[in-house]
Design goal:
Elements lengths: L10 H16 L12 H26 L5 H33 L24 H7 L7 H20 L2 H7 L4 H23 L21 H18 L4 H11 L2 H7 L5 H16 L8 H20 L3 H16 L2 H25 L9 H31 L7 H23 L3 E2 L4 E2 L10 H37 L10 H17 L1 H17 L7 H4 L2 H34 L8 H10 L1 H13 L4 E3 L6 E3 L22 H10 L1 H10 L10 E6 L2 E11 L2 E9 L5 H18 L18 E18 L7 H30 L5 H21 L8 E2 L53 E2 L6 E2 L24 E2 L5 H10 L26 H10 L6 E2 L9 H4 L19 E2 L5 E2 L15 E2 L3 H7 L5 H10 L9 H9 L2 H19 L8 H4 L1 H8 L10 H4 L2 H24 L5 H14 E3 L5 H8 L4 E8 L4 E19 L1 H16 L19 H7 L9 E2 L3 E4 L2
Helix pairs in contact: 1-10, 2-3, 2-7, 3-4, 3-5, 5-7, 5-8, 7-8, 8-9, 11-12, 12-13, 12-18, 13-15, 13-18, 14-15, 15-17, 16-17, 16-19, 17-18, 17-19, 18-19, 18-21, 19-21, 21-22, 21-23, 22-23, 27-33, 27-35, 27-39, 32-35, 33-34
């Protein structure tokens, strides 16, 4: 058979299972090992296992023969067992601790040839023996706790199984007594062994790690529950029949433990809380354990209040009000209301601090949902519910008996109408078999589909009004008439209060199901002739509704489980790939023992437990009951994240709106907790899990499944594509007899919706990226992109600095500016001596030593601004390299001089940045170029001023106290400015400077040492003599003006600098200042050749580093596509000058951004036509900046762009196998999503089997049978969608509350 080759368990796992099974059956003893062990290992385990029975047998004989009082024997025996467990654990703890201290790790013998679970035993009392038989408890307090619990278990167990107790129950039947005595003591030994030693492997595994050692308590807990009923029956005779049957069930506990029918304690209590909340209180399963406990507590509080309030009218009003209130999303509303108050308070505080009169406006969604729904909507509904219920209940005696009957028929009519309206909006009607002719025939054309879908919106709005507003109020009136009294003398008062509490809440919690339940009860009481059903006369309406709700829920579960069973059974033969060697015998046995199968299904439904298919074969067991979310970890706590995770995260936010509409209108049926929806679009799957449902809200979890990378994914995806295509694609219209071609699939198509998501397109770039013409265009585009990026970046950076500052920062800057102003005024005053001058004060004549304010004639730039480096002064940062002589000389600006790149006001750049502490001081001082050669000698004799302490300010030629107590930022300020350097003796003999050093343009002399040779530097770091007063706004940062490239290399490239494009980009910047508009300022800046020159130097230097210097004498065209790909992804070719770019994070990012823009521009010009004008280039770049993110898929910015929903994303990739380059374009657009509903029981059953396989059988083989593709049950997709570590979704969202108002 085709499917028989896939193993259920491989050979290794089979051996592992057969070793583990005896431990599960006997409660922990390891009697089957995979290696040879001494006999004392087995004997010690058998002794520990039978010791409770041996001691209990002795005391049983004493009670039965010697007439020892039973309760005295119980106490003595229990105390002995406490001491036995304590002694056993204490000995094991002492021996193991002593061994750990005395034996060094290197002295311990290790058998490298042994199996990984093999143990080398040395003696009967050796440490290895104790570690193997009696491992130490992880939590030492549990040693005492487990010992006390063992005493209680064994003592009560002996009392529970005394022959006199059994004879009293079974009329002295010797056979029953002997069987129950033997099997009962075996059960006690199995339960107690886990307390002495540790928990055995359990098929009913609910979590992977037992951090708090809860597992050893599971079996003793169930045994103690049975013994507790026995104690109760001794004092309450009515419990004796229950105790009679429980003694029989007690001996079957080992079988239930072995089959995994009884849940672990944590799963048990969560399941019980959930069943009480849903079944008795009318609530919903909760999205988290904390919400479940809190909601159950509130519900029990309402129940207790209703039970003890003596006034019936007050009770009804309380149930009406609290029924509505508890059905709403209290947690979500409370957190949003608190967030709203906090936000308003914070905004008010900020507004007061800034004295800003503008009011903060909330986002529309939060404003609507919180302010309207919470403040107005819910309060109004609370008033209506309480008032309507109270008034009707008060006047109920005066209301005619026909009114409840009329309301009952109205409720039945509302049930039929809302069901029809819901089905008419779905693609299939009549149990998913008949294609709805009203539904749009095709979804390929999005606009046409949306237009036709709007016609069905009217039906949805009508249903929404009827179901959310009309139906609850009608049912409320009906219940207020029929539930009028709560007789305190009735023996069923508890159930009456439970029924009333549930009924008044259920009409809001789930109106459609409440309509069905009330309709059934109305038919039973008013339509069926009286006397037909005798029990209805003795049971009040509230209790009947409680029973009706439980029966409805379990009946629907039975039908769903039966469908799951039939599909699994039939497809095991009809699908050839699912055939196994056991298929035929399984089918035969299922047919012969079909009543047994039905009983298993019924028990499973009664317990609300999953129907567990062993290895997903048609062999079913009852899985242990568990809460709705199926796994103890928080929803969305983990996922197997990869590159596709971010796309699912973006989609999860977009899904809220269409799901909200679909849930409200009914096109996805009435969502109930535990339902699953599968969404298909393009090559992706989205799994939606309903966690919680309430009044006008639904809490969901969205999971993203990995793409179709394996054959299993492809097979199931292909089947789903066929189902959706045959459902939604009918170009020629839909006939009235069109049926579902896949009616027995686990997924039934329901609806389709349009959502903005990213569509993915990949194109191979062969012939483009490797073309010489394309690379030539790329070169030209790169230079223009650099101009665009640099100008825009600097304009934005300077505009940010000009924004208003906080008062404290502005004050500190004013303080600093005032101090600098004082210092600067003192710098132009006469120096302390004639022989000493202050560097930085304009020296016209060093020989005279006099200070004047008259400046030398200013050097002018020639028309050929290519030689800009010879026309500007140089400045060297002292903290990077020694300060050159040229960096010390500057002249005092006077009116009428050219504008420098520094404003008169000392402008601070990023003064508040604690990280960089970089301050760009614009000194307002002009560089005297004609003094550069004179200061070279001063450089060799001067000392680095930054090594001086702040107490030496008087050396700088400043009056004492002017610059004292400088902060770190202010000191950095003076470093940037070279303000107040030490006094220099101008009469000191000059030293000869080598000719090659004078050509270095400020490079330190010691760079010539250590064999490094000459490293030319183009330095633009001095004050620029701009011709425009506005040029300083676009001046380059100081750190970018030190260019480690020879002048000749840059000069040879300056002819390629696009002057026209530079001027054009200037006109696009927002440069408005001092009352002048941007056009006027841009016109002045365009005439400033110094500004253009420094940009030309920077742009061509970046271009040279990227495209010339690191290519080893080759060119870009020769390097081909590999060079483009590397630079695109940030790998700039190495050269001695490349570190200048790569080590400056800001400059590096700008260069890479410009290169990526240039690549996209080149690609668009090749495909769409070359840009022939600056206007077209502008359009390209503006579109890229506005609508496109160009980057690498591995960059964090890529994920941010996706989450921010950038309209388009572009990346360049490489296929190493085919050695091809491709482009990937993600476009945010309307995409039609196809939605189907899965069989909930099929999902629960397969998840239960998955937990059994992975956690008990440890069957993690990737080729195992139970994860092979199953096109009908969608087995592989279902396994993948489970929460980790069972499944592996690539994305799992936290609980999302979707309003359905």
């Amino acid at each position: 058979m085709a499917g028989s080759s896939a193993p259920l368990l491989n050979d290794y796992k089979k051996d592992f299972f057969w070793k583990r099974l005896p431990q599960t059956v006997l409660g922990g003893p390891k009697l089957k090992l995979g290696f040879g062990a001494p006999a004392y290992v087995y004997l010690n385990q058998v002794l520990l296992f039978l010791l409770p029975w041996i001691l209990g047998g002795i005391f049983t004989v004493l009670v039965e023969v010697v007439s020892l009082t039973d309760y005295v024997a119980v106490c003595i025996y229990g105390g002995i067992m406490v001491l036995m467990v304590l002694l056993t654990q204490a000995i094991s703890l002492v021996v193991q601790k002593k061994e750990d201290v005395s034996v060094a790790p290197l002295q311990q013998t290790i058998n490298v040839l042994a199996e990984e679970d093999e143990v080398d035993f040395t003696s009967c009392c050796g440490v290895e023996t104790f570690k193997f038989i009696v491992p130490v408890k992880k939590i030492k307090v549990n040693i005492l706790f487990h010992a006390l619990l063992s005493g209680a278990l064994c003592g009560l167990g002996m009392w529970y199984l005394l022959p006199q107790t059994l004879n009293g129950l079974y009329n002295s039947s010797a056979g029953a007594t002997v069987i129950l005595f033997i099997l009962g003591w075996l059960t006690v030994c199995i339960a107690q062994y886990s307390l002495t030693v540790g928990a055995p492997p359990e098929p009913a595994a609910f979590r992977t790690l037992d951090t708090w050692e809860i597992a050893p308590l599971t079996r003793p807990f169930y045994a103690l529950v049975f013994m507790g009923f026995d104690l109760t029956a001794r004092y309450i005779p009515v419990m004796v029949p229950v105790n009679y049957y429980l003694h029989i069930v007690f001996v079957f506990l080992p079988v239930m433990w072995t089959l995994g029918l009884l849940p672990p304690l944590d799963a048990l209590f969560l399941w019980m809380f959930e069943q009480v909340l849903v079944g008795l209180m009318g609530g919903s399963p909760m999205a988290s354990d904390l919400r479940l406990i809190l909601m159950l507590t509130l519900s029990l509080g309402v129940f207790l209040a209703a039970y003890f309030i003596p006034n019936d009218l007050v009770t009804v009003i309380l149930l009406c009000v609290m029924g509505y209130l508890l059905s709403t999303d209290l947690g979500g509303l409370g957190s949003q209301f608190l967030k709203l108050c906090t936000t308003q308070h914070n905004n008010k505080s900020k507004s007061d601090a800034r004295q800003d009169s503008e009011k903060t406006i909330m986002k529309p969604k939060s404003n609507f949902f919180v302010t309207w729904a919470f403040k107005e909507g819910h309060f109004i509904m609370l008033f209506i519910a309480g008032g309507l219920g109270g008034v009707i209940n008060y006047f109920s005696p005066q209301i005619s008996a026909d009114i409840p009957q009329i309301l009952g028929y109205i409720i039945m009519g509302l049930l039929v109408i809302q069901k029809l309206l819901s089905d008419m909006q779905r693609v299939y009607v009549f149990f998913g078999i008949w294609r709805n002719a009203l539904y749009p025939s095709s979804i390929q054309r999005t606009l046409i589909f949306q237009k036709r879908k709007k016609r069905l919106l009217v039906l949805g709005i009508i249903r929404r009004i009827l179901l959310e507003w009309v139906s609850p109020l009608v049912m409320l009136a009906y219940l207020a008439m029929v539930i009028t009294t709560f007789p305190s003398t009735s023996p069923l008062l508890v159930w009456t209060v439970f029924g009333a509490t549930r009924a008044f809440r259920w009409i809001w919690q789930s109106p459609s199901q409440s309509l069905l339940e009330i309709s059934v009860i109305h038919i039973i009481n008013y339509v069926i002739p009286s006397g037909t059903l005798s029990w209805t006369s003795s049971v009040d309406i509230a209790t009947q509704l409680l029973i009706s709700g439980l029966c409805r829920d379990r009946l629907f579960q039975v039908l769903s489980k039966l469908y799951f069973f039939m599909v699994t059974l039939v497809t095991s033969w009809t699908d050839k790939k699912q055939r196994h060697v056991s298929t035929v015998p399984t089918i035969v046995l299922s047919v012969l023992f079909f009543p047994v199968v039905l009983a298993i299904i019924a028990i499973s439904a009664a317990l609300s437990a999953p129907l567990l298919p062993i290895f997903t074969l048609p062999i079913f067991l009852v899985g242990f009951p568990r809460p709705n979310k199926a796994w103890p970890a928080s929803v969305g706590a983990s996922a197997n994240k990869n590159a596709d995770t971010v796309y699912y995260e973006q989609l999860s936010h977009q899904l809220a709106a269409p799901l909200r509409t679909a849930f409200a209108n009914g096109s996805l049926d009435e969502p109930s907790p535990g339902d699953h929806y599968l969404i298909r679009y393009q090559d992706r799957f989205v799994w939606v899990f309903i966690l919680e449902r309430g009044c006008r809200y639904c809490t969901i979890s969205v999971k993203g499944l990995e793409l179709q990378e394996t054959s299993c994914h492809t097979v199931e995806a292909a089947r789903l594509d066929d189902i959706f295509e045959t459902t939604f694609e009918h170009e020629n219209g839909v006939s009235c007899c069109s049926l579902n071609r896949y009616p027995f699939n686990a997924m039934t198509p329901y609806d389709a919706c349009v959502v903005k998501v990213y569509s993915d397109a990949k194109n191979v770039l062969t012939g483009i990226i490797d073309s010489s013409d394309s690379l030539q265009i790329m070169t030209q585009s790169f230079i223009k992109a650099l101009v665009w990026v640099m100008l825009h970046h600097n304009a934005k950076s300077k505009s940010k600095l000009e924004k208003p500052e906080p008062p404290n920062m502005a004050g500190s800057r004013r303080s600093l500016r005032s101090r600098l102003s004082t210092a600067r005024s003192n710098r132009v005053a006469p120096g302390p001596s004639a022989g000493a001058v202050v560097p930085g004060t304009g020296l016209n004549d060093q020989e005279h030593g006099a200070i004047t304010t008259k400046t030398a004639p200013e050097p002018k730039l020639t028309s050929s601004w290519d030689s800009i480096t010879s026309e500007v002064s140089f400045h060297q940062k002292p903290n990077k390299r020694p300060i050159s002589a040229k960096s010390r000389q500057s002249s005092v600006s006077i009116p009428g001089s050219n504008w420098s790149d520094d404003n008169e006001s000392l402008e601070l750049e990023n003064f508040d940045s604690k990280k960089n502490k970089k301050i760009n001081l614009i000194a307002g001082l002009e560089t005297r170029q004609n003094q550069g050669s004179k200061n070279d000698s001063a450089y060799n004799s001067s000392v680095d001023p930054m090594s001086k302490s702040k107490q030496q300010n008087h050396v700088y030629g400043q009056p004492a106290g002017i610059l004292d107590n400088l902060t770190d930022e202010e000191e950095e300020l003076f470093k940037e400015l070279d303000f107040g350097l030490p006094a220099v003796d101008i009469h000191q003999p000059k030293k000869t400077v080598p000719s090659y050093q004078s050509n270095l343009k400020g490079t330190p002399y010691n760079n010539l040492q250590h064999g490094h040779g000459i490293k030319p530097v183009t330095n633009l770091a001095g004050s620029m003599q701009f011709s425009s007063p506005y040029s300083s706004r676009l001046s380059l940062p100081l750190k970018w003006r030190e260019i480690p490239i020879e002048n000749t290399k840059i000069d040879s490239l300056l002819s390629d600098f696009p002057k026209d494009w530079f001027k054009w980009v200037l006109t696009l910047l927002d440069l408005e200042m001092d009352g002048k508009n941007s056009e006027s300022v841009a016109a002045e800046l365009a005439e400033d050749e110094v500004l253009m020159g420094i940009y030309a130097q920077l742009v061509m230097a970046c271009y040279a580093v990227t495209e010339i210097l690191g290519l080893g004498g080759s060119d870009v065209i020769s390097m081909g596509a590999s060079h483009v790909y590397k630079v695109y992804h940030g790998d700039i070719p190495w050269s001695p000058s490349s570190e200048w770019v790569t080590e400056d994070k800001e400059l590096y990012q700008l260069v890479i951004k410009a290169y990526r823009l240039a690549f996209k521009l080149m690609l668009d010009q090749v495909l769409l036509g070359e840009a022939s004008s600056n206007e077209e280039l502008q359009e390209y770049f503006e579109e890229y900046e506005r609508d496109l993110f160009i980057g690498s898929e591995k960059d964090p910015e890529w994920q941010e762009a996706v989450l921010c929903e950038k309209p388009m994303l572009f990346s360049l990739g490489h296929d190493s196998e085919q050695n091809t380059y491709n482009s990937r374009v993600l476009t945010l657009q309307d995409v039609t999503l196809q939605i189907g509903k899965l069989n909930a029981e099929a999902v629960k059953g397969q998840w239960a089997n998955l937990g059994l396989e992975l956690l008990y059988f440890t069957n993690d083989d990737e080729e195992r049978y139970s994860i092979q593709a199953h096109p009908t049950l969608l087995r592989n997709l279902t396994v993948q969608s489970a929460d980790p570590p069972l499944g592996y979704p690539v994305f799992s969202s936290e609980p999302m509350s979707v309003p359905s108002l």
